[in-house]
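Annotated sample (chain length 219).
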Amino acid sequence: MEHLLAATAAFLATHFVSSTPLRGAAVRAMGEWPWRAVYSVVAFATLYWMAWAYGRAPREELLWTPLRHLPSLVMPFAFVLLACGYWRNPTMVGADKLLKSDEPARGMIRITRHPLMWAVILWSLAHVAARADARSIVFFGGFFVLAALGTVAMDAKKKRHPDWPRFERVTSNIPFVAIAQGRNRMAWREIGWLRPAVGLALFFGVFYLHPYVFGVRPF
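Output written by the structure step:
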């Protein structure tokens, strides 16, 4: 468990350093692309360490009755968010130019401006509920912290863009809040059927391969 705690802390620190002044100092010293290369290597290394430590951490007494079928109910939505979140998403790296659009929030971005992060949030919470042990709280909880605080850090970083206030007024971090408050509207035709279908296909693929890849049956 000590390895898992240390790996999770390193994983989170690695990802949040990009939101601190250390990133700017590193880019000035190394250059943008060398920094990205080093950052990617370190991020993957800490992720591998985290997964290795999770697999070797003892599974202690259950803390509550596991909700084993919850991921099967939640993950289709997570995969749809994931598949749709890559289309016209101004919060993605390098997509700032979309903030200048006449209608910057379209498709899934009308529902939440952070669909990719919410996919991770749903995945992590569903798996914590399904596993119900301390090591899963640390492992999956680490991803929850990364995604939840990541949305806040991304918003803070994007606020420097002159077109961000206009985008922020018509979107929300929490899904459906902007629509419920009348600041935006649903537009199902913008989402279409292809991207949700891709998301569901990915879900069924992972669902089938889950016992072989992760060693745990999701049903």
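Annotation: The mean pLDDT is 91.
Annotation: The radius of gyration is 19 Å.
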